[in-house]
Design a protein that fits this description.
- The chain is α/β, with parallel strands linked by helices and 345 residues long.
- The chain has 3 domains: 4-92, Beta-grasp domain (Ubiquitin-like (UB roll)), CATH 3.10.20.30; 107-202, Elongation Factor Tu (Ef-tu), domain 3 (Beta Barrel); 215-335, Rossmann fold, CATH 3.40.50.80.
- The chain has 7 helices and 19 strands.
- The protein has helices spanning 24-30, 69-74, 181-188, 224-237, 258-267, 289-296, 311-323, and strands spanning 4-10, 14-19, 48-53, 57-59, 76-78, 82-84, 88-92, 107-118, 123-132, 143-147, 154-158, 169-175, 195-202, 215-220, 243-249, 271-277, 285-286, 304-309, 331-335.
- The longest helix is centred in the last third of the chain and has 14 residues, at 224-237.
- The chain is globular, with a radius of gyration of 20 Å.
- Bound molecules: flavin-adenine dinucleotide and FE2/S2 (inorganic) cluster.
- FE2/S2 (inorganic) cluster binds at residues 37-40, 42-47, 66, 78, 80.
Amino acid sequence: MADKHLVRFEPVGIEIEVEEHQTILRAAAEQGIMLMHGCKEGQCSSCKSFVLDGDDIELDRYSTFALPDAERDEGYTLLCRAHVYEDVTIELLNYDEDMIRSGLPIQQAVAEVVANDLVTHDMRHLVLHLIEPQEVTFFPGQYMDIAVPGTEATRSFSMANTSTREAGQLEFVIKVYPDGLFSHFLATQLAVGDRLDLVGPFGVFTLREGHDADLLFVGGGAGMAPILSLLRSMAERGIDRSATFYYGARGSRDLCFADELRALEHRLPRFRYVPALSEDHWDGEVGLITDVVATHEKDLSGTDAYVCGPPPMVEAAIDLLSRLGIEKDRIYYDKFTTTGDPDGP
Ligand SMILES: Cc1cc2nc3c(=O)[nH]c(=O)nc-3n(C[C@H](O)[C@H](O)[C@H](O)COP(=O)(O)OP(=O)(O)OC[C@H]3O[C@@H](n4cnc5c(N)ncnc54)[C@H](O)[C@@H]3O)c2cc1C
Ligand code: FES
């Protein structure tokens, strides 16, 4: 039996047991506690927290961009890398009171490939059918970790579908990198009928429904996936909040799901889809997605924003949206950090 220690989170007053081989973040996820995080690999600092009490904490390998030595000396830690060897108390610096206790415990799953098709010239639409268990419940906007066959590595991918409509199915939109460990395998080897191991669901990129604020979605590349899940869920449940989806792509060959998004404009009369191309001329919006948002939106105070895609786009969008009046804690985002990012470990 592994040694366990108590971890208490303040100011929320939640206590969990953490085994020494687990990270604090992983133990919390297994117990349905949804803590803020991004990469889970010590690269992005989304899980940075402060140790109020306890010293015996060790960290797996992490980037000093995410946790500079001076901050570690002051008492900051990364929950996705931290193992505890005594009882500790942690102050959460970023947390969402609406979400923290609403987590679904993560599950191990095996799924079979039903479809693996190109949806743009470099993004694939992967559809999996769950074998064991036969269903995984997730909130729209969440993601799973998929094991890369034949390796110890996992990669995170956001579901594009909803588990209320299709509990036995998981749908993903995945960008292919020429040397990508998982995405190259996906593009060249993974066939219908093959099986994949997954674990999840993870993530807090989920719709906050305690109020009726206007919604602004900003996405780029495969950031389409979780936003599509959120929009599909709104349509299924008839949530007709005023909502705009700004989607940035380089050229028209990078656009996907356009017909479905146009159809959603009819199902959700207060929803607008605004695609923009940064490198092609066409009769739609042209420019970087942040510039297009800046042209159309002047005052966004009171709006809830959901931003998802490559880290530079997400960072630029957070800056812009804050300048346009959205409170920082009402900007929800998933950065699709990759292990190959230049600011990685
Ligand atoms: C919470 C979360 C959710 C995610 N959801 C999705 C999703 O729904 N869809 C999706 O496609 N991805 C998603 N990602 C990213 C995904 O997990 C992988 O990191 C990504 O697919 C790359 O994995 P890989 O194994 O193919 O490439 P890796 O082997 O990790 O990288 C391969 C090579 O590609 C290069 N490379 C990596 N990133 C870039 C880049 N941005 N630009 C240029 N070169 C690059 C690297 O330098 C490296 O040489 C998500 C990430 C997170 C953290
Ligand atoms: S989630 Fe811990 S550093 Fe990214």
